[in-house]
Design a protein that fits this description.
By secondary structure, the protein is α/β, with parallel strands linked by helices. It has eight helices and five strands, in the order E-H-E-H-H-E-H-H-E-H-H-E-H. Helix 1 crosses helix 8. The N and C termini lie close together (11 Å). The structure holds thymidine-5'-diphosphate. It catalyses: dTMP + ATP = dTDP + ADP.
Length: 197
């Protein structure tokens, strides 16, 4: 089973993902961007405010392809529980926002189309919900993707994704205390595991 964690920068999803290591030590924990050289290239693009957004999309997508073949598919074939901190929805939400002023008429559909040929959809996606102002304040707005106005566009893209596939998403209120968010997510993962066996 593949469970992904999504949310705006500063939503607290990485803290939750780290806490899940203790409650579900049997799971395979992974993340995007990855730690491969593809992920390093992605991180260079994130830190370069002048990076071309279409080029950045393809770097993220290359990292995803490598992540699938090297980590995700082998673990799923081994019947493992895989928990990924960010996954393809991050591209659908963030790169669709980054490409909103480009020549592409429907950036989200375009990005989904590129992925659909080769990706593996998550079984469940836990969306940690915080408003863009809280997200920008918590993340410190240190890179091009952490500005409140940009995050407002990313948030509305995530809402479109949730509206399109409400059965895949579980929404968790990220404005609760970190302990409450962690407890809620641990319960969700326990229930999903239980429903599988
Ligand atoms: P991440 O390392 O998850 O940052 P954080 O832990 O602060 O959430 O992601 C780095 C940045 O890259 C973040 O601003 C979100 C962005 N991002 C995309 O724009 N598209 C993607 O596909 C992914 C995986 C991340």
């Amino acid at each position: 089973m593949l469970i992904t964690l999504e949310g705006l920068d500063g939503s607290g999803k990485t803290t939750v993902w780290e806490a899940l290591h203790d409650s579900h030590p049997e799971a395979t924990f992974t993340r995007e961007p990855t730690e491969s050289w593809y992920g390093e290239a992605v991180n260079r693009a994130i830190d370069d405010d002048g990076a071309d957004p279409l080029a950045t999309l393809f770097l993220f997508t290359a990292d995803h392809a490598d992540h699938l073949s090297r980590t995700i598919r082998p673990a799923l074939e081994n019947d493992e529980l895989v928990i990924s901190d960010r996954y393809s929805d991050s591209r659908y939400a963030y790169q669709a926002a980054a490409l909103s002023g480009s020549d592409l008429t429907r950036p989200m559909e375009y990005i989904r189309g590129i992925h659909s040929a080769f990706t593996r959809e998550p079984d469940k996606t836990i969306y940690i919900d915080v408003d863009p102002e809280t997200a920008a304040a918590r993340s410190g707005s240190t890179n091009q993707f952490e500005d409140a106005a940009f995050l407002a566009q990313v948030e509305s893209n995530y809402e479109r994704l949730i509206d399109a596939e409400p059965e895949r998403f579980v929404r968790v209120d990220g404005t609760q205390s970190p302990e409450a968010v962690i407890d809620t997510v641990e319960d969700v993962v326990d229930r999903l595991r239980g429903s599988q066996s």
